[in-house]
Write a structure and sequence with these properties.
Elements lengths: L1 H10 L6 H11 L4 H4 L1 E4 L14 H11 L5 E5 L7 H13 L5 E3 L7 H10 L8 E3 L6 H14 L5 E3 L7 H13 L5 E3 L11 H12 L5 E3 L7 H11 L7 E3 L7 H13 L5 E3 L6 H14 L6 E3 L7 H13 L5 E3 L7 H12 L10 E6 L2 E6 L34
Parallel strand pairs: 1-2, 2-3, 3-4, 4-5, 5-6, 6-7, 7-8, 8-9, 9-10, 10-11
Antiparallel strand pairs: 12-13
Helix pairs in contact: 1-4, 4-5, 5-6, 6-7, 7-8, 8-9, 9-10, 10-11, 11-12, 12-13, 13-14
Length: 409
């Protein structure tokens, strides 16, 4: 790879990017290439050493040598300076390439026209399984191109359109497309730009969930969702037996909305991860959840209630639930109001081994004979915006998807 890259730079009169050259040299030393395939990690946010970010011209040289490299199955180009011109190069590559399974373009400078080209390439591409467009300002129109792509494409399994400034029409179009699409397993629609407060998008997404049987993971963070929207979602989920990960973080859900979730959990036996981070469910909401999990639900594995204005009463109720419900293995509670009993209950859960240190975001410590809880940097979204260079954590612990959706990266 490195030799071909040097030759291609000379042929195209393009200066070498030392970061790309180093990654390709490392890839050349990899012995598992022929059997497993590799992901070239060219993310521009390399924390250990400052790296020259990948430009549109750099990408042009790179894809010219990847055409013959069938063993490259993944490409991580996050946090670089690719624009619509780079998106055009990538779209051409996707139309011609039949081995790339994972493509990460998050937080580049791709706009609406770049989104149109990449979505257009996926009308015919039959290899890409996982695409991340997070943080590219493709806007509502760019999102619409991906919505129409979902009606045609039957191989994509994970699509990340979080923080992409999509709007109302795009979300409605995606919901409609997913009533027909049978291949997509996970979609991230976090932080759309919604001007009205009517929760139309939630109603459309709920309607989609009644007929969709393939979606496993759904992110609806920062949708301005209130209790009305949660009620619509819960009504739909009584008829859905495929969704296993529901992310409702950073919304306006109160204890009344959680009452509907509690009732749903009593009947639903497929949901495995529920993210309620940064809502306002308070003690009453926490007790609704603990009641459902104590005697009825035996499917939920992970619960995040970070920053929900819960005091000791609600937290202790959830700690007691964990002693009886052995299926619930991950719980995240930081950002609430810890009292003495909360600290004691959770430190006991950790010390007895019921709650493993990698499966929660608190750790007990003692001062003057009193137990307190310190924060750990764990959470359901720990690796949503960055990925560790080495396999420092077990895949299932404190990770985004708990290995629910197997994809190439």
């Amino acid at each position: 790879l490195h030799l071909h890259y040097v030759q291609a730079c000379q042929n195209l009169s393009q200066p070498e990017n030392p970061f790309i050259a180093r990654v390709l040299q490392e890839a050349d030393k990899n012995d598992d290439i022929s059997t497993e395939g590799i992901t070239l990690k060219l993310a521009g946010n390399y924390h250990l050493v400052p790296v020259p970010r990948v430009t549109d011209d750099d990408l042009g040289v790179l894809v010219s040598i990847l055409g013959q490299a069938a063993f490259v199955t993944g490409l991580d180009l996050a946090y670089n300076v690719l624009t619509d011109a780079g998106a055009k190069t990538m779209a051409t590559f996707l139309q011609e390439n039949s081995t790339l399974r994972y493509l990460n373009l998050m937080f580049n400078d791709i706009g609406t026209s770049g989104a149109e080209l990449i979505a257009g390439a996926l009308h015919r591409n039959e290899s890409l399984v996982h695409l991340r467009m997070t943080g590219n300002k493709i806007g509502n129109q760019g999102g619409m191109f991906f919505a129409s792509m979902l009606k045609m494409n039957s191989t994509l399994e994970k699509l990340d359109l979080g923080d992409c400034d999509v709007g109302l029409q795009c979300l409605v179009a995606i919901a409609i497309a997913l009533t027909q699409n049978k291949s997509l397993k996970a979609i991230n629609l976090n932080r759309p730009l919604l001007s009205n407060q009517q929760e139309e998008t939630t109603v459309h997404i709920a309607r989609m969930l009644t007929s969709n049987s393939s979606l496993v993971e759904l992110h609806l963070g920062k949708h301005g969702m209130k209790n009305f929207g949660v009620e619509r979602l819960c009504e739909a989920l009584y008829q859905n037996s495929s969704l296993r990960y529901l992310d409702l973080s950073c919304n306006n859900i109160t204890c009344d909305g959680v009452k509907f979730l509690g009732e749903l959990l009593k009947k639903n036996q497929t949901l495995e991860i529920l993210d309620l981070n940064a809502n306002r469910i308070e003690d009453v909401g926490a007790i609704y959840l603990s009641e459902a999990l104590l005697t009825w639900n035996r499917s939920l594995q992970a619960l995040s209630i970070v920053s929900n204005n819960i005091t000791g009463k609600g937290l202790v109720a959830l700690a007691h639930t964990m002693q009886f419900n052995t299926q619930l293995s991950h719980i995240y509670i930081w950002g609430n109001e810890f009292d003495r009993s909360t600290c004691v209950e959770f430190s006991e859960l950790i010390e007895t081994g019921r709650l493993k240190p990698g499966c929660t975001d608190v750790a007990p410590y003692e001062v003057d004979g009193k137990v307190f809880l310190a924060e750990l940097s764990h959470g359901l979204a720990k690796h949503r915006y960055w990925a560790p260079r080495c396999a420092a954590v077990a895949p299932g612990a404190a990770n985004a998807s708990l290995d629910i959706v197997p994809v190439s990266e």
